[in-house]
Amino acid sequence: MLAPISWRVPPRHYGPWERFVSLLTEGLVGRGVDVTPFATGDSLPTARLASGVARGWAGDPEIDAKVAECLHIAAAFERAGEFDLLHNSFDFLPLSYCGLVSTPVLTTIHGFSSPRILPVYVKYNRRSAYVAISNADRHPSLDYLATIHHGIDTDAFHLHPAPGAYLLFFGRIHPDKGTAEAIEVAAGVGMPLVLAGIVQDQAYFDACVAPHIDGERVRFLGAVGADRRAEILGGALALLHLIGFDEPFGLSVVEAMACGTPVLAFGHGSVSEVVDPGITGAIVHSTEEAIRLLVQVMALDRNAVRRQFERRFSATRMAKDYLAIYHRLLGRPLSPPMAAALQQPIAADSNLN
Predict the structure, then answer these.
(1) CA–CA dist 179, 169 (Å, integer)
(2) I need a surface site. Which of 16, 97, 225, 277 has the fewest CB within 10 A?
(3) Side-chain-facing half-sphere of 94: CA atoms under 13 Å
(4) What are the helix (H) ranges across 78-173?
(5) Would strands 351-352 and 281-284 be described as parallel, antiparallel, or unpaired?
(6) Closest CA to 2 of 57, 76, 111
């Protein structure tokens, strides 16, 4: 399992790709699969860790990111012969190694940071099998084995039947994520708003967010670690996910649902695949519509929100879906642990095609 190395696995706070690797690794290990995660040396998986770098480059300015990434990827591919399969969750760079090994390579595409990286995916379209994380994020130039929605640990997030009295924005502070829009909606309904996340665009934060932070109507918590995510998400009356871009998949949306917290979201990207209107939230197209529908969203049955999450977005379901893809991709006898894990039925809500 090839993880990114911006952060450790699992991440202390931000790091959605690293969190995906952690959840999938633990889900596979729990089903008896022998997994070797390639991640930073300070990572904490229950599986046997392999690492060529001590720590993530995002938190250490002394590390040259490209040098660390090259050493990290090479470490995995140099051992390719030891594994049934290499699962790449690192983005496009490892694809250039695919032709150098005979071990099958599966790549989960977590989105396209720029159209300029697409030629790499196109070149290795048949050499590395691709999985999309949402139908909305599929590119017409590529072939996919499946769309597999993310799943999370159901035990890490518990239902909060009696939330606090605040609305929540949870994510990186960036124009794409709709922080200013969340502030506008909260002000429009006269409710306190909590902001949680890293500041990714300082100029945007200074101009559009900071002037509204007063510690009462708008509070800013900064990055929230794994130890507080459930508390903050579950304590909210609703999550405001008013994004302005085609988001491949929103983990914070699913995490909110796991706590019973309904979601009010703009319908960009994968939102329509994740939010079930009238059950787990509402999809709107303007801040005015968000203000108008917010009361209805907050009134949704939090137990029903949690049940829908359990049905659709558990880490167990995700692990089963990936095991099915491993089986299809390999098309040959599997190692005994992987073969045993595949004896269990595939979840009914998978989207394999």
Answers:
(1) 7
(2) 225
(3) 32
(4) 118-123
(5) unpaired
(6) 76
DSSP secondary structure letter of residue 346: P
Please write the tens of the pLDDT for every residue from 207-218: 999 999 999 999
User: CA 125 → CA 84, 87, 115, 145, 245, distances in Å?
Assistant: 20, 15, 16, 11, 25
Q: Give the predicted TM-score (pTM) of the model.
A: 0.87
Scored b (16 or more CB within 10 A) or e, 205-230 reads beebbeebeeeeebebeeebeeeebb
Q: Which helix (H) or strand (E) holds 147?
A: strand 146-147
Following CA atoms 76, 81, 82, 85 in sequence, which dihedral angle do they give, to the nearest 10 degrees? 70
> How far apart (Å, rounded) are the C-alpha atoms in residues 233 and 21?
22
Alpha helix stretches (DSSP H) within 161-301:
179-189, 202-204, 226-234, 251-258, 271-274, 287-298
Burial 123-141 (b: 16+ CB within 10 A, else e): ebbeebbbbbbbebbbbee
Tokens representing 43? 């990572």
- pLDDT tens digits, 112-121: 988 999 999 9
341, containing H or E segment: helix 336-341
Q: Which amino acid is at 22?
A: S
| CA-based nearest residue to 310, from 169, 157, 161 | 157
Which 3 state secondary structure label does DSSP give 283? Answer: strand
Q: Nearest to residue 22, comparing CAs of 34, 33, 31, 38?
A: 38
What's CA 295's distance to the chain center, in Å? 28
The least confident of 49-63, 199-213, 250-264 is: 49-63
